[in-house]
Amino acid sequence: MSIREIARRFGHSRKSVRKALASAEPVPYRRNGPWPTPKFTAELKAIVDAILLADESAPPKQRHWGTRIYQRLRDEHGYTGGYDQVRRYMQTRRGQKQETFLPLVREPGQRAECDFGHMVVEFPEGRRQVPFLLMTWPWSNAFFVMATPTERVEAILAGLTSAMTFFGCSPSELWWDNPTTVAKEILRGRDRVGNVRDLAHF
After folding, report:
1. pLDDT the model gives residue 37
2. C-alpha triplet 121, 126, 128: angle, nearest 5°
3. pLDDT, position 143
4. By CB neighbour count within 10 A (0-12 exposed, 13-18 middle, 19+ buried), where does 159 fall?
5. What residues does 120 pair with on adjacent strands?
6. CA pair distance 71, 22, nearest whole angstrom
7. What is the rounded distance in angstroms from the CA atom of residue 167 to the CA atom of residue 121?
8. How far apart are CA 12 and CA 18, in angstroms?
9. Which residues of the chain have pLDDT under 70?
10. Measured between alpha carbons, how far is 115 from 60 in angstroms, rounded to an integer?
11. 178 contacts 192 by C-beta, under 8 angstroms
12. Is 178 left (phi over 0), alpha (psi -120 to 50) or beta?
């Protein structure tokens, strides 16, 4: 076939066909410069500022880490840049060091971790803090969350029953972040004085 016929049949320009015929092997694509980095615009900075300002009146455990702000910018505002741009801007705003993560390795099913947190909920009669029980598995990061009326032993028992029913199993170890219902007094290291009255229910 002629070059013109090849170009017409396969939908390429005659220049592209000549270039292909001149090389026995396909020529890999090469960029002449680096990929352009999306700019962290003033509009995005204003969104981050608004999130950080709202965090000042929120409970500590409901405040945003850098990764969560990055996810919100990406999912809610179409941000296509990287996490590092967000982190660097937050460093300038908060004057904090880079987040540090320590990996912990656990065997599957060995250990689950429990803690109570608090969230602000808007009720018809007004805003109120509501406790919730959180149970996580360090090996898989699977989690269960349940709002509870209190942090007393009956709420712990109801929450643990619901969590283990949800997962369909129970851990070999159950670690708590020192609620007074479980640990009456914190000693040195990992030593604790258990709350005898409440632990009798476990």
Report:
1. 62
2. 40
3. 93
4. buried
5. 129
6. 47
7. 26
8. 10
9. 24, 29, 33-38, 94-105, 178-202
10. 14
11. yes
12. left
| Beta strands per DSSP E along 32-74 | none
Residue pair 162/99 in contact by the 8 Å Cβ criterion:
no
Say if residues 111 and 171 touch (Cβ distance below 8 Å): yes
Say what the pLDDT of residue 185 is.
Answer: 54
Query: What local confidence, expressed as pLDDT, does residue 197 receive?
Result: 53
Q: How far is residue 185's CA from residue 180's CA, in Å, rounded to a whole number?
A: 8
Beta strand segments in the chain, E: 111-123, 126-136, 143-147, 173-176, 183-186, 192-194
Chain centre to alpha carbon of residue 127: 26
Q: In sequence order, what are the residues at sequence separation of 6 or more whose Cβ sits closer than 8 angstroms to the Cβ of residue 115? A: 133, 134, 176, 177, 179
For position 63, what pLDDT does the model report? 82
Q: What is the pLDDT of residues 89-146, one digit of tens each?
A: 888 876 544 555 555 567 788 889 988 888 998 889 888 889 999 999 988 889 999 9
What are the structure tokens assigned to 158, written together? 């109801």
Compute the distance between CA of residue 63 and CA of residue 83 in angstroms, rounded to an integer. 18
Number of other residues whose CB lies within 10 A of the CB of residue 151? 16
With contact defined as beta carbons under 8 Å apart, do 38 and 30 qualify?
Answer: no
In this structure, are residues 120 and 50 in contact, taking their beta carbons and an 8 Å threshold?
Answer: no
d(CA 194, CA 27): 71
